Automatic annotation (TrEMBL):
Protein name: TRAP transporter fused permease subunit
GO molecular function: transmembrane transporter activity
UniProt source species: Salinispirillum sp. LH 10-3-1
Stated role: Part of the tripartite ATP-independent periplasmic (TRAP) transport system.
Record-annotated membrane-spanning stretches: 26-45, 57-74, 80-101, 113-130, 136-153, 192-214, 322-341, 362-381, 387-407, 442-466, 472-497, 504-533, 539-556, 568-586, 598-619, 626-659
Annotated ranges, domain TRAP C4-dicarboxylate transport system permease DctM subunit: 126-584
Lipid bilayer topology: Multi-pass membrane protein
Keywords of this entry: Cell inner membrane, Cell membrane, Membrane, Transmembrane, Transmembrane helix, Transport
Subcellular location, record wording: Cell inner membrane
Origin organism lineage: Bacteria, Pseudomonadati, Pseudomonadota, Gammaproteobacteria, Oceanospirillales
Cross-referenced InterPro entries: DctM, TRAP_DctM-Dct_fused
Gene Ontology CC, one term: plasma membrane
Amino acid sequence: MTTSSVVTDQPEAAWQPPERKGPKPILWLITILGIGLSLFQLYSAGIQPLGLFYQRSIHLALVMMLAFLIFPPFGRPRGVIGSIIDLGFFGAAAFSGFYLVYNLDEIFARAGFWSETDIIVGCITAVTLLEASRRAVGLGLTIIGAVAIIYALSGARGSLPWLGEWLPGILNHRGYSLERVAAQLYLGQEGIFGLPLGVAATFVFIFVLFGAMLEVTGAGKFFIDVAFAATGRQRGGPAKAAVLASASMGSISGSSIANVVTTGAFTIPLMKKLGYKPAQAGGIEAASSTGGQIMPPLMGAGAFLIAEYTRLPYLEIVKVSIFPALLYFATVYLFVHIIAIKQGMTGLPQSQLPVMREVLMRGWFFLAPLILLVFLLVMGLSPMRVGFYAVSGIIVVAGLNGLWLAVRRGQENGALAKEVTAAIKLGFIRLMQGLELGARNAVAVSIACGVAGIVVAVVGLTGLGLKFSSMMIAFSGGNILLALLLVIIASLILGLGLPVTASYIVLIVLVGPALTNEFGIPLLVAHLLVFWYSQDSNVTPPVALAAFAAAAIAGSKTMETSVQSWKFAKGLYLIPLFMVFNPEIITGGPLPVLLWNGFLIITALVAFAAAIEGFLFTWMKPWMRAILALSVIGVFYPSMTAEIAAVAVMLLLLLVNFVQYRRVGVA
């Protein structure tokens, strides 16, 4: 059996949860807590909304408890010492969360006059959260959270006055006591339970759960089959299918690495079989999967965070993000097409591909919850309520489809009751697996948002954001291009240790005021710029996390795969830059301006891909590539004359390349 037939002939029911090792009592407790967390989130999303602190404190308590069960303290099976440590942190996680629930009225009544117990619990919560972050997210974010707390304590009036003497003048501040910092982090609305965790505990979780339900019911396999049926016969078909599948799955998965592992397991072997080099196959998958994080509706939690920070409707964020996301995927698609032509590739034979009609007949019902989701968002329902209905919808349609298939099998073999009973049992198991998987997938995001809340609280308390903006203006000399270069460098450095969501939150808090107030970039454009640049650590050497995951599947060298992913993902840098100099494509404007800007960026991206590869219709001479590259740069010059001249040069050179192709062909 060929590789492709293995891919295309798997039934949806073939999904199996990943193998989990460990003591059975621990595994059962993880399952119970995961299901409980998902049911709690569904209840608060669609049945009875809860108050801010009730919702967030219970959510964080359950998430941290799951983290200490899932991730051993030393990265290996627990011994006696490890079990004792985990038991202590597990109890601290439960106590720190539910302490607020039991004492919330009394805490509000004290109105700033915190008791000694409040402060102790606040310190316990901060330490517990940082340890959960070390295990679930990584050491980088944990260090940043700890440094932020130490920074708040430094200063003449702080608990660490001696440390303030070592701070540079611009970073110096008055300093705060341990009691003040603990209260700010634990009892304030801008600390651990602030906006980042609030978004994770409401909108993000429900959509992550929706993605988990799609996964366990076979939707991932359905989307991959649709992509292969649509593009498999074209040149470089599996690579193009990887782009489409990653766009569809990545938009709801919430993780570039998870997207690589899910779709790359199918697409990377087929790309290699077709003729792509292992590093190219891994790079294409990494770049495509990273693009899933900028593709609506979920955008890896970005859409909800941007909506909360900008105070714009969620639907507005989704609408303005569609065109830039499509441009990104079109750029990756074009790179794939050019490489396929350069290397003389063909598509897969029809016998090895799924038939679109059969795929749609087998899994059309997976489209119903997505259509319902879009319809309800357009109708103006809150994203959390929409997510509740979407999760309910996928459970209902998948359950009805399973019963229908069971009835058909029962009528054929004369064992109707047996088939229906088996279908109900399998459906219940899949439901429980989906609830647990949704909770597991949300652990890292929620903990990262909790630690990001620590950073946000310290930035607000110490005025670090304004100081960082001053440094940014001083280093850039007021030049917007240099300022944007500093943002790129900062995002790359933060991305080495932080997940995308946390990187975006920290970066926008630090550089957002300067981008909007000093450089005049519109608020929404500034947030999209920072969010897009926060993705670059997935595809940019030396630490490209999505590329590393793809390299493991492709069997290629990690650095070589990282370089390839960086090349394919160049739209991640150029498109946000275009937003800054042509904000009308985001903020809106007269129709002629929008059409011109759309034509401008599309032409520039095509020319850029041709210049990088030295090929479009046929091979290009070095001087043509150099002029094309310079013309792309000219597009970003804030002058209509420069834009017209750059477009004219690009169109002329692309026309020359087409004429050369008509005369001599590809060779």
